[in-house]
Amino acid sequence: MSTVSQPGSRPEELPDAEEPPDTPARATTDAAGDRHRLTALQGLAALSLDAMASVAYGPESIVLVLAAAGAYGLGFTLPVTLAIAALLAVLVASYRQVIAAFPNGGGSYAVAKAHLGRRAALVAAASLILDYVLNVAVSVTAGVAALTSAFPALYGDRVWVCLAVLVLITAINLRGIVDSAKAFLVPTAVFIAAILGMIVVGLFRDAPASTVTADGHASVLAHNATSVGALLLLKAFASGCSALTGVEAVANAVPSFRAPAPKRAQRTEVALGALLGVMLIGLSLLIGRFHLQPVEGVTVLAQLADASLGHNWAFYVVQFATMVLLALAANTSFGGLPVLMGLLARDNHLPHVFGLKADRQVHRHGVLALAAVAAALLVFSGGDVNTLVPLFAIGVFVGFTLCQVGMVRHWYGVRSRGWRAKAALNGFGAVLTGVSAVIVTATKLTDGAWLIVLALPVLVLAFEAVHRAYARIGERLGLGRVPEAPHAARSLVVVPVSHLSLLTSEALNAAVSLGDEVIAVTVTHDDPEDRPAADALRRDWELWNPGVDLLELPSRTRSVGRPIADYVRTLAAHRPATRITVLIPEAEPAHLWQRLLQNQRGAVVAHAVRRHTDAVICRLRFRLEAEGVRGGAPRVG
């Protein structure tokens, strides 16, 4: 007895009457499947890249804001970083609860869809899309900034370098080459070891080991400024919150972990939060210890590496490790956004083409859409990471807030043991992230954040418009209703021809096999240069005598498709009970480049018939082999 699962049902919820869950066969299957899932360590390497990479631009964003208050303002780098670290701790604790409550993954989109309704879920999805797109642009620009800090000669060509990196990542994803967690372990470990080593060495230094990187670069520090107001601190906090992006990535991919998946994912979340917090606080301590001043064209991280390790091989290890990790962090979006777009397409909120997969299980259209938008952002920003970072954290905090509010409703509904404490934690997180979202939006509004404020509702409205369009299409098609029983109707096949050849013979063979009646039609023109060809076709047709009438359709213009479409429409009006099919024969060259030699007559006719009639269009592909000619079977176009 077979079990049929309905769309949207989860296989693990279906009873298995044939085999108990604890049988040796089931255990063997689970063990084999676990080999393709993540351990906690592998999960840290595969899912933390976005968050880890944010240490390359998070502290710099804080410093650039505080630099407006001069050297006195830079003294507040550590307090602002400690506030961000506290918010990070709350988020990590909250997402541990999300992992436990939603072991099937989905993050803020799944939570909002389950507890806040469809509209809130679409807002969460829009915020995730903006986050994924900006993550690509920010990661690529930050990685290239690390490269140009080590090799200043490339600074003038940074936009082209950014686009080249983006093309490389896109090409890899289009081929379906998915970097495994084992491949991520090495660059992640090198990056973490380099940053932590730099922090430890720097804390034991009384003065910078080197300032070669910053020499000759103009300082962006404001002079004669001593006051630090609440607005400046809030703006620095908002800018530094860009370091919190990617904290939700583990909760989105819980099913990717080995059993027990929730426990392993929770360990990964805690490890991610601890490492990220230590690195952020350690870097802020070094900024204060070395009295670092931001300069144009050199990243803060590069200056810290120079000051802590000296301008030697260790400095270049930090720069290259940062660049590689940032590139891999961009690749995270290429793995996440196309999947999210596929889910939205399945729910009829995006065109269904985004739900299609290529042979290598790649959402190719989603990958290309992400690359196109990211390329536009790179060109718009001029390859400057500081132009993009102000746009980054808004969508993230919208998703954070919706997720926490949804979790409060979740605990209120299930009322499991300790639900009040869990709801209080998520409620506290919702307040913090909600306030942070307001602060980030308000302080960055004039820096370009208005684009995100505008894009978020526009995306939601676009989702709704696509959903309404699919609803109308479904109603017109009668989806969900049992149609009438099929019945046979008299069929008439119209075959457009322009000359007599083996292609014409194969087309008529297919036509008489498909229809009860076949009519061959040809478009003729009154111009003197066209009359000999028309007379020759008429004469050859009479000599051939295939048993199918040839009807000439005179045309006053040079149009080919419109006269055939008009004739088919006239036939349909006079014979409404007849099913009319237009069979268009086309030669398919043996080589791709030879398609440039074709006149595209078949495509023109197909377009005209599709646009002006309701006839069935059948395009016969007649394949031309390199050593001969072989006919192909007709297929519906």
UniProtKB/TrEMBL annotation:
<dbReference type="GO" id="GO:0016020">
    <property type="term" value="C:membrane"/>
</dbReference>
<keyword id="KW-1133">Transmembrane helix</keyword>
<dbReference type="Pfam" id="PF13520">
    <property type="entry name" value="AA_permease_2"/>
</dbReference>
<feature type="transmembrane region" description="Helical">
    <location>
        <begin position="424"/>
        <end position="442"/>
    </location>
</feature>
<keyword id="KW-0812">Transmembrane</keyword>
<feature type="transmembrane region" description="Helical">
    <location>
        <begin position="270"/>
        <end position="292"/>
    </location>
</feature>
<feature type="transmembrane region" description="Helical">
    <location>
        <begin position="121"/>
        <end position="147"/>
    </location>
</feature>
<feature type="transmembrane region" description="Helical">
    <location>
        <begin position="366"/>
        <end position="383"/>
    </location>
</feature>
<feature type="transmembrane region" description="Helical">
    <location>
        <begin position="62"/>
        <end position="95"/>
    </location>
</feature>
<dbReference type="GO" id="GO:0022857">
    <property type="term" value="F:transmembrane transporter activity"/>
</dbReference>
<feature type="transmembrane region" description="Helical">
    <location>
        <begin position="448"/>
        <end position="466"/>
    </location>
</feature>
<keyword id="KW-0472">Membrane</keyword>
<protein>
    <submittedName>
        <fullName>Amino acid permease</fullName>
    </submittedName>
</protein>
<feature type="transmembrane region" description="Helical">
    <location>
        <begin position="184"/>
        <end position="204"/>
    </location>
</feature>
<dbReference type="InterPro" id="IPR002293">
    <property type="entry name" value="AA/rel_permease1"/>
</dbReference>
<feature type="region of interest" description="Disordered">
    <location>
        <begin position="1"/>
        <end position="32"/>
    </location>
</feature>
<feature type="transmembrane region" description="Helical">
    <location>
        <begin position="312"/>
        <end position="345"/>
    </location>
</feature>
<dbReference type="InterPro" id="IPR053153">
    <property type="entry name" value="APC_K+_Transporter"/>
</dbReference>
<feature type="transmembrane region" description="Helical">
    <location>
        <begin position="389"/>
        <end position="412"/>
    </location>
</feature>
<feature type="transmembrane region" description="Helical">
    <location>
        <begin position="159"/>
        <end position="178"/>
    </location>
</feature>
